[in-house]
Amino acid sequence: MQPNRADLGKNPSRVSGMFDQVAKGYDRTNTVMTLGNDALWRAATTRAVAPRRGERILDLAAGTASSSASLAAGGAQVVAADFSPGMLAEGRRRHGHLHNITFIEADATDLPFGDEEFDAVTMSYGLRNVQEPKKALRELLRVTKPGGRMVINEFSTPPGRFFRGFYRFYNAQVLPRIARLAGTNGDAYDYLNESIRDWPDQRTLAGWIREAGWTDVEYRNLSFGIVALHRARKPQA
């Protein structure tokens, strides 16, 4: 199969097709590339969401549903949504036995849910791949109950100059080679590097979240700012 190479135009069908192709080895490759930090970032995201039994939570860009399974462990009802059928199929294969996870194919800019359905919404490493991220933030607000919470975990800009230089070198030169050695579409990880380099820094994203209508917006860096955990709340009615 010819590797699918997305670009910064972020055409939804091309990006979705790219993720379809890497789905099977996605988690393994991520663990290798992040030196195991992906598990720490997932745990930090779950703590920030703070899922409670009986809540309904949307995990958007759920991928293979590793994050959904972590959220569901506390008894919440989790909707694992993604625009990649291949990722969702892999998620069902791994976590379909969990009775409190539902898998739904969804476009982040046109969510197939009613207003105010979810107690919490979260998105990890997916907002960067959306063609209209500001529209996605508004859609997440729409489907969240008043007073509900949002957690966005996304690759970001390390504030330290020296570490930022090393990180960019690693992404550009090392990361695609590791992906190819792991038997994954290396071109997809070329795109990953480009999309991270093109993505706004923490403060700019926080501004986008406020513009979308969220309140109590704050963020904290993880792993020296490789990723940033953004938190916000929907205003009470």
Q: Which regions have little confidence, pLDDT < 50, spanning 5+ residues?
A: none
- Structural domains: how many: 1
Radius of gyration: 17 Å
Protein structure class: alpha/beta
Share in β-strands:
15-25%
Distance between the termini: 51 Å
Number of strands: 7
The CATH homologous superfamily is termed Vaccinia Virus protein VP39
Largest sheet: 7 strands, mixed
What does the overall shape look like?
A: globular
Helix content: 40-55%
Average pLDDT figure? 88
CATH top-level class? Alpha Beta
CATH topology: Rossmann fold
Encode the helix/strand succession as letters: HHHEHEHEEHEHHHEE
- Helix count? 9
Question: If classified by CATH, what would the architecture be?
Answer: 3-Layer(aba) Sandwich
In short:
GO terms for molecular function: methyltransferase activity. The chain has 237 residues and is of the alpha/beta class. The chain is 44% helix and 21% strand.
Write the layout of secondary structure elements.
Elements: H1 12-22, H2 26-33, H3 37-49, E1 56-60, H4 66-72, E2 77-82, H5 85-95, E3 101-105, E4 118-124, H6 133-143, E5 144-155, H7 161-181, H8 186-198, H9 202-211, E6 215-222, E7 227-233
Parallel strand pairs: 1-2, 1-4, 2-3, 4-5
Antiparallel strand pairs: 5-7, 6-7
Keywords: Menaquinone biosynthesis, Methyltransferase, S-adenosyl-L-methionine, Transferase
Pathway: Quinol/quinone metabolism; menaquinone biosynthesis; menaquinol from 1,4-dihydroxy-2-naphthoate: step 2/2
Protein name: Demethylmenaquinone methyltransferase
